What does this fold into?
Amino acid sequence: EIIKVVATSLYVKPSEIISSKRTKLISLSRQISMYVAKKYTSKTLKEIGNSFGRRNHATVLSSISKIEQLIVEDTNIKKIVDKLEKEIEDSK
It folds into this structure.
């Protein structure tokens, strides 16, 4: 569900978020998805990584840290993440 919400909001396909593509938009979408997945689920880093194309826990942790840093440094990223979080909370 998180992947679908992020994909729709950032105009990428859910399959691209899970893929190994590394374009800037797809990578950012994937990182945001991992950040939100950690925040709103009880899944472990390994479980989250498996949901994103069998990525390891270190990749997930790196993605989460990157988004936490971008939220502080980039107001546009903060707005995107806040909007996504609101959508996810409203869909519960």
